[in-house]
Amino acid sequence: MSTIQELFLKGSNLLKNRPNPHLDAKLLLLECASLSEEKFYSSPEHKLSIAQERCFFKLISKRLAGFPIPYLTGIKEFWSITFKVCPGVMIPRPETELIVEKVLELLPWQEVTIVDIGTGCGNIAVSLAKELPQARIVATDISPKALKIAGLNASRHNISSIIFAPGSLFSPLERLRLRGKCDFIVSNPPYVSEKEWTQLSEEIRNHEPKKALVAGETGLEVIQKLVPGSPLYLKPGGLLLFEIGHSQKDKVKALFASDSRWKGVSFFKDLTGAWRVALGRVRGN
Predict the structure, then answer these.
(1) pLDDT band at 264; cut points 50, 70, 90
(2) Percentage of residues in the chain with pLDDT exceeding 90?
(3) Beta strand 262-269 with 192-193: parallel, antiparallel or unpaired?
(4) pLDDT > 70? residue 285
(5) Measured between alpha carbons, how far is residue 282 from residues 100, 181, 184, 211 in Å?
(6) CA torsion sign, 17 to 23 to 25 to 31?
(7) Residue 263: helix, strand or coil by DSSP?
C-alpha cells in the first residue's frame, strides 16, 4: 500500500504535461480517498487502501484522456459554494460570478422575483438564494438532466425556495404567469458561434454539452431572443443581466438600442478585462 505523499507524487508526475498537474493530482486523491485538505497536508505518510489507489490511477487515466476535473470529482466551486456537476451539464465558470455580484449590487430591497434562464447546475440561482433568502427565484432549463442536478444542488445547500421549471427561454415564465412580474431576469445563455466552437479546447469539445455553449452560426441566436423577449416579463424598471462573449459587446449594445422599451444598457468586465456581462433596464411607467 502507498502513502498519500507517494501517490500524490506519482500522480503529479503522470500529469506533468497537463496545465496543473499538482492541483489535479491532489483533487483526484482527495476524491478517491475521501480525504480532507487538512488530512492531505497533515498526514502525508498515511497509507491508503489498494481500492483507493486503484481509484486514483483510474481517474488519473481519465484525466490524461482529457476528462475535465469537475466531471471526475463530481464537484465544482462557484461563489464559494460547492456544486454537484456531471457530464451533460455545463461546468460553471468563475467569470459567471459577475452576474451574482451585480445582482447583489443593484438590489435596493430583498423581496424580489428573479428568473434564471438556462440555469444549468443551478449555480446562479442557488448562489442568489443563499444570499437573498427572502427572494422568489425561478430557475429554468431546456435540459431535464440539468434541472435534476440543479434541484440536487439546491437540496444539498438546504434551499427549498427555488421553483425549477422545464422549458426553453420564456415558455416556463408564461406557464407560471410571470408577465410583468419579474424584478430581474438573469442568464448565462449559449453564446459561442459554430466557428468558435471548433477553436475551443478538445477537453471542452469532447466532454461538455455543445447545446449549452453554442448558440448557432453567429453565437448571438439566443441573445437575439433574450433581449426583445424579456421586457414582457420584467416589471417597469426591471433588469436583464446576462453573460456575453468577449467580442459581442457592440452587437449586443445595438440589439438594446434597436428596442425602445429599454432605458439603457451597461457592460461589465470580468477579472481578465474582457467584457462579460450586459445589463439592460426596462423603461418605467
Answers:
(1) confident
(2) 92
(3) unpaired
(4) no
(5) 19, 12, 10, 29
(6) negative
(7) strand
Question: In this structure, what C-alpha cell is assigned to residue 89?
Answer: 451539464
Q: Name the residue type at position 113.
A: T
- Residue 124 pLDDT > 80: yes
Task: Please say whether the dihedral angle defined by the alpha carbons of residues 141, 257, 94 and 98, taken in this order, is positive or negative.
Answer: negative
Give which of 85, 156, 98 is closest to 128, Cα–Cα: 98
Which pLDDT tens digit goes with each residue over 105-119? Answer: 998 777 899 999 999
How many residues appear in the chain?
A: 285
Grid coordinates of 203:
477537453
3 state DSSP class of 77: strand
Phi/psi class of residue 48: alpha, beta or left (left: φ > 0; alpha: ψ in -120 to 50)?
beta
pTM of the predicted structure, to 2 decimals: 0.93
Nearest to 228 by CA among 142, 168, 170, 165: 170
**What are 68's three cell numbers?**
475535465
Q: What is the mean pLDDT of residues 119-141?
A: 96
Residue 112: per-residue pLDDT: 93
Closest CA to 33 of 20, 45, 51: 51
Report residue 93 as a C-alpha cell: 465558470
- In whole angstroms, what is the distance from residue 141 CA to residue 119 CA? 6
- Nearest Cα neighbor of 244 from 127, 128, 126, 99 is 99
The answer to whether residues 244 and 67 touch, using CB atoms and an 8 Å cutoff, is no
